[in-house]
């Protein structure tokens, strides 16, 4: 039994990402302990006006976000591609919560920080309005690079898989049913 955190990174109150997150949570709950976060439900100031020079006290929703990350063994991020990468509110949550001392720590004299969230795995489920092959191979797959390399790996979280669904904009009920079934299969394979 694993501790699984499902993050719906789409801030909209209703979306395909939210449906996929609910499907994943519903199926994974049969075998695992699962928590779900909907970024749109969180209340916090997105901007990191002082960078990391001055740490601003975290709002209760971000404290809870950090606690759930620390609790988890496997993190599932379900995100749409907006302007090539993740939505601003999700990026704001990362900026505000993945702080020095929480997700990484610099040591004197070393330029590469210690990864404080080691021992966790992740998987990415990405929705987009362009064909996945176009986004990945022509547009450069920025969301994957940002999440896997710049955020997850930097913090010590090992990404194990990435799944893409699209184009969403022209999808129909049958497409979405296939995608929901695929997400159920992903949730069933957690060990």
From TrEMBL:
Phylogenetic lineage: Bacteria, Pseudomonadati, Pseudomonadota, Gammaproteobacteria, Vibrionales
Report what the protein is called.
Answer: NAD(P)H-dependent oxidoreductase
Q: Which residues cross the membrane?
A: none
Give an example GO molecular function.
oxidoreductase activity
What are the entry keywords?
Oxidoreductase
UniProt similarity note: Belongs to the NAD(P)H dehydrogenase (quinone) family.
- EC numbers listed for it are 1.-.-.-
Recorded hits in Pfam families, A to Z, give: Flavodoxin_2 (PF02525)
In this protein, which residues make up the domain named Flavodoxin-like fold?
Answer: 2-170
Indicate yes or no for the key word Oxidoreductase.
yes
Under Gene3D superfamilies, the record lists: 3.40.50.360
Q: Which InterPro entries match?
A: Flavodoxin_fold, Flavoprotein-like_sf, NAD(P)H_dehydrogenase_qn
